[in-house]
Amino acid sequence: MERILPFRFDEKERVFWLLDQRKLPLEEIWVPVRTAKEMAEAIRAMVVRGAPAIGVSAAYGMVLAHLRGEDLEGADRLLRQSRPTAVNLFYALDRMRPHWGNLAGSLKEAQAIWREVEETERAISLHGAKVLRGQVLTHCNTGPLATGGYGTALGAIVEAHRQGRVSHVWVDETRPYLQGARLTAYELKKAGVPATLIADNMAGFLMAQGRVDAVIVGVDRMALNGDFANKIGTYTLAVLAHHHGIPFYAALPLSSVDPSLESGQGIPIEERSPEEVLELRGVRLAPLGVAAYHPAFDITLHRYLTGIITEKGILYPPFDEALRDALGIS
Ligand code: MRU
């Protein structure tokens, strides 16, 4: 099967190449990133997006800062300011800090962060596949494009399909940025998994008809009690699944848990430009002068979760105990 990668590093040319996810699926265009400043801008503009992929990109942003002789403090600051919600960004930059001033060390650490994405996602996919069956619904994009590895929620779906457990995927289009329509549909098509695109507001109707056996989503930041931020619309799906008695899973590497937060209340939610709601690929949808609001993520309370799928296995309630145990903290 053809492997999808959101980025590649050309060490000789000192360039980190990003597959421009704003242009997919209509065009496959690679964008060169030469400095940490350019990387911060690419993350902010969502040339690259998805929590683990943002983490890997930020780590290589620091490698570029070393290669280009940028001010490391400034590079780190710019990258930290690029997007606020996915904790993987901060996790990766924290790991890079001890290697500041050491090019070989910083490159090795960035490579390790990327390699660990692949390793953890292989495990997440295998664990997650065990609990999925029949028709599965997913939201946003959690596949290779969002991570640089196999994917989290989507990795589990593809693996469950490979094992003959999952027959069909409902793909939420994921307004307003359309990660589902543009990216998840693209990845599932390439993986040969039968999928049907739906507008976000159709999920409840399908659940009421008994056509959804499980919902699985990714995570941008999880608190120690299991509350988590993910793409706007996830909370709505969680409540709907709960109402209909449908299992609802979150899949994530443990690096997406923020051990400084007891609950989801403290998770910073990114607010993006209203233009992304008012326009679609540059085409105006609403009358001029109309206001729009664009929170890019929402918080789902842990009580709606059936299980949390991690590289260490599937965690069940009470989640605070299970997460502390998995993280090795008291
Ligand atoms: O705004 P995005 O596209 O970066 O948001 C991505 C998501 O919300 C994903 O579900 C999340 O990062 C998990 S990716 C494995």
Question: What does this protein structure show overall?
Answer:
- The chain has twelve helices and 15 strands.
- The protein has 330 residues and is α/β, with parallel strands linked by helices.
- A seven-stranded mixed β-sheet has the order 6-5-4-7-10-14-15, sandwiched between helices. A three-stranded antiparallel β-sheet has the order 1-2-3, with helices on one face. A three-stranded antiparallel β-sheet has the order 8-9-13, covered by helices on one side.
- The chain has helices at residues 36-44, 51-67, 72-80, 87-96, 103-129, 144-147, 153-162, 179-191, 203-208, 234-244, 275-278, 319-327, and strands spanning 7-10, 15-19, 30-33, 134-138, 166-172, 195-198, 214-217, 221-222, 228-231, 248-251, 279-280, 283-284, 297-300, 307-310, 313-315.
- Bound molecules: 5-S-methyl-1-O-phosphono-5-thio-D-ribulose.
- 5-S-methyl-1-O-phosphono-5-thio-D-ribulose binds at residues 49-52, 86, 140, 142, 146-147, 152, 179, 218-220, 230-231, 296.
- 5-S-methyl-1-O-phosphono-5-thio-D-ribulose is lined by residues 49-52, 86, 140, 142, 146-147, 152, 179, 218-220, 230-231, 296.
- One of its GO terms (molecular function) is S-methyl-5-thioribose-1-phosphate isomerase activity.
- The active site is at residue 220.
- Belongs to the EIF-2B alpha/beta/delta subunits family. MtnA subfamily.
- Keywords: Amino-acid biosynthesis, Isomerase, Methionine biosynthesis.
